[in-house]
Amino acid sequence: MGGAVVGRETGVRPRRLRRTPGLRAMVRETRLSSEQLIYPIFVQPAGVALQPVESMPGVMRWPVDRVDEPAGEALETGVGAVLLFGIPPAKDARGSGADDPEGVVQQAVRRLKARWPELVVVTDVCLCEYTEHGHCGILRERRGTMEVDNDKTLERLAATAVSHAEAGADIVAPSSMMDDQVRAIRQALDAAGWEDVAVMAYSAKFASAFYGPFREAAGSAPAFGDRRAYQMDPANAREALREVALDVAQGADIVMVKPALAYLDVVRAVREAMALPVAAYNVSGEYAMVEAAARQGWIDRRAVVLESLTAMARAGADLIITYHAVEAARWLREG
Hints:
The structure is a single chain. The chain has an eight-stranded parallel β-barrel, surrounded by nine helices. It has a two-stranded antiparallel sheet with strand order 6-7. β4, α4 and β5 form a beta-alpha-beta unit. The chain is of the alpha/beta class. α5 (150-167) packs across α6. The protein starts with a helix and ends with a helix. It is globular and about 75 Å long. It is 40% helix and 18% strand. The protein has helices spanning 2-10, 21-26, 68-77, 104-115, 150-167, 181-191, 212-218, 238-250, 264-273, 284-295, 301-315, 325-334; strands at 37-44, 51-52, 60-63, 81-86, 120-125, 139-142, 145-148, 171-174, 198-205, 254-258, 278-282, 319-322. The longest helix has 18 residues, at 150-167.
């Protein structure tokens, strides 16, 4: 009661600026736009049938000779960037398809840049989609167990990044969480004459349970064990700042937090600590939960998607990688 009296006495009524849609829009603190969004696309060999991803309704594996369909749809809605993941025709222990000049990602990059030079093409740089064991690097035996050899993996990541740059990628995005991966890639790009290709580092990539549907989409589930020895412990936030700082020192142009929704506190901490652009990855499990609840009629799908993306931007994400990018851009255009 006392608060209400004070409000009347001082004339303070925050609701005045919430009264109409126009007033609310005028004072809105966080503005979401299609230019912030990056659309992930899964690419497989040409001639293969278009394949839906069961656990991610609406998401497809696109044959490389049709990759301009989702990319063109993204551009038409105002989404100016795509992130490519490759699904090779064959896998081996060293992930040979990752840096193959005729690999699916390299073909897709050339195809997209030839048609739309203005499209920002980002490529995922990792080995998990290309190795027969599903881990993110080259394996070695140590102390009686198999583990990822950090330094041998750096050579493969650097070669992959250079092959993507040669194909025409604007940004390479190392996601394997190997120590010194940004330095190795930056040095290799510069040595090959690709100083203008940017690095978007998966700097704070957590060993999250939210990645399950992606592993179905990319065929990248580990054949044994898990990735906790190289991806971050979900309980750690201070360590995320350390990882980000290391990537910035090694030459990253953009840093990323992955996942997004369950790690908004980390997005905010990174935003406050760093001047570089910050990306957040709205991952497959987050997408799948929304889709599943919407199909049951339990949530307003459009409202929940836009609210979630706005929360990521509000936390400090300049860029948001999301499977909802195209639909969200349409909704934003409709107002």
